[in-house]
Amino acid sequence: MAKNSIKDKKVSKKNSNSEKINLDNQIKDLEDKYLRLKAEFDNFRKRKEQEVSSLLKYEGKNLIKEFVSIFDNLSRGINSYNDESIKSALILIRDEFLRKLELNEVTSFGQIGDQFDPNLHEALTVTNEKSKSDDEIVEIFECGFKYKDLIIRHAKVVVNKK
User: How many whole angstroms separate alpha carbon 120 and alpha carbon 72?
Assistant: First the structure.
């Protein structure tokens, strides 16, 4: 009987050791899951903060896109009228419009003589003028606009290619 009780104690000790190892493994698994979940939540929180920050930074982007067409129409009007008094009035309006945009961190770009940059300009056609350098902008169809550091619209241009 003494042998059986010793065996029972050894078996129960082995069982308790295996239960302890099993519980330790479960604890490690749960700790690992907790750390992963915490890291995933931190990443989610940071992504959301960045999205909200971006939304606030560029909050007027859509309104600016709509107003850029007004600038285009003013420019077309200036080019289409022969009457100098109407042209000068439209130029004053266009220039005031540009000043108001610049006060709100909107800048125009794309001038004749600039170097073509595919990040800023959209080449509609190319031409071959000997007097101009390669990749020089020779004509502007529409000015480009930036809002802060975001391109609202690429400038539509004609580029010289030799």
Answer: 17
The domain limits of the chain are 1-57, 61-160
What digits encode the pLDDT tens for the residues 5-25?
665 666 666 677 788 888 889
pLDDT of residue 66: 86
Rounded to whole angstroms, how far apart are CA atoms 72 and 155? Answer: 12
Measure the CA–CA gap between 162 and 160, rounded to whole angstroms. Answer: 7
2-11, 59-68, 109-118, 125-134: range with lowest mean pLDDT: 2-11
Yes or no: say if 145 and 64 are a contact pair by the CB < 8 Å rule.
Answer: yes
Cα(first)–Cα(last) distance of the chain, in Å?
106
Of residues 48, 98, 92, the one with CA closest to residue 71: 98
Give the fold, CATH level 3, of 61-160: Nucleotide Exchange Factor Grpe; Chain A, domain 2 (2.30.22)
Q: In what order do the strands lie in the sheet with 137-142?
A: 121-127, 155-160, 137-142
* 135 contacts 115 by C-beta, under 8 angstroms: yes
The separation between CA 79 and the C-alpha centre of its own chain, rounded to angstroms, equals: 34
Q: What is the tens place of the pLDDT at every residue in 63-104?
A: 888 888 888 888 888 988 888 998 999 999 999 999 999 998
